[in-house]
Each structure stands twice: as C-alpha cells, then as structure tokens.
TrEMBL record:
<dbReference type="GO" id="GO:0000785">
    <property type="term" value="C:chromatin"/>
</dbReference>
<dbReference type="GO" id="GO:0046872">
    <property type="term" value="F:metal ion binding"/>
</dbReference>
<protein>
    <submittedName>
        <fullName>Uncharacterized protein</fullName>
    </submittedName>
</protein>
<dbReference type="GO" id="GO:0031490">
    <property type="term" value="F:chromatin DNA binding"/>
</dbReference>
<dbReference type="GO" id="GO:0006357">
    <property type="term" value="P:regulation of transcription by RNA polymerase II"/>
</dbReference>
<keyword id="KW-0479">Metal-binding</keyword>
<dbReference type="GO" id="GO:0003712">
    <property type="term" value="F:transcription coregulator activity"/>
</dbReference>
<keyword id="KW-0539">Nucleus</keyword>
<dbReference type="GO" id="GO:0032454">
    <property type="term" value="F:histone H3K9 demethylase activity"/>
</dbReference>
<feature type="compositionally biased region" description="Basic residues">
    <location>
        <begin position="101"/>
        <end position="120"/>
    </location>
</feature>
<dbReference type="GO" id="GO:0000118">
    <property type="term" value="C:histone deacetylase complex"/>
</dbReference>
<dbReference type="InterPro" id="IPR045109">
    <property type="entry name" value="LSDs-like"/>
</dbReference>
<feature type="region of interest" description="Disordered">
    <location>
        <begin position="87"/>
        <end position="131"/>
    </location>
</feature>
Amino acid sequence: ELRGPSNPRQVRNLHSCTKVAVDFVSPESLPQCLKLRNDLRKMQKEDKLQVQLQMMCGADWAIRQLIRTGHITGEMMPEAELERIRQLSSSEGAGKAKAGGGKKRKVGAKRAAAGRRVRSAAREESDADEA
C-alpha cells in the first residue's frame, strides 16, 4: 500500500485486493456486504475482511449510543444535559493530553553536566543545619 504525498487518503495497492471499511458500510449495503463475505468464504484465502464482525461491532456501537442518550429507553436527555456531557468529554480529553507531560524532579536534586546527580547548595546547607 503506497500513499501519495498530495492526498493522505489516496492508496495504491501493489496486489489485487478487496477492502471494506466500517465507516463506508451503510445499512442499505449490508446485503451486498454479506454476499461479498459469502463469496470470499468460498475462496481458498483467509477471510481478512470479517464483514460480519464489522457489522456486529457497528450495530453494537449504535445501540450503545441510543441507550446512552435515552432514545431506546424513552428517557431522552434534554439538549442542555447532552451539551454538558459533550463538554465534559471534550475537556477530559484535553486534560489527559496536558496532564501526561513533564517529569517530576526530586526537591534539591539536579543533574550535573555529565549526567550524574548532584545536591544543590540549599539542600547541602539544610542537611548541615540538621547535623
């Protein structure tokens, strides 16, 4: 698979192949996907598409979203509550990205030019006062 520099979604296949992506499978095209799966199953090759698994995962995700928003249970959340959930989920994603950066250093320790740990002058003074 080679990608062109001008378009990151552009693909040039080196061998003949068939690809099905979940984001391009619509409910209207499910019969064609199942037919494709059955045709591929008759071949001597391994079924790498796993169309049935993709359909099940997509349907599971859709049902979970409907349950979460209350569309299936009849307890639909007000639009203000949905907006609050969206803001919380977007702020959590931004917080995780910021929180992971930077290493903590021990107080009073710093690195020498050669990479060895040395004690700061303030730390040495406090240790001398304690002794």
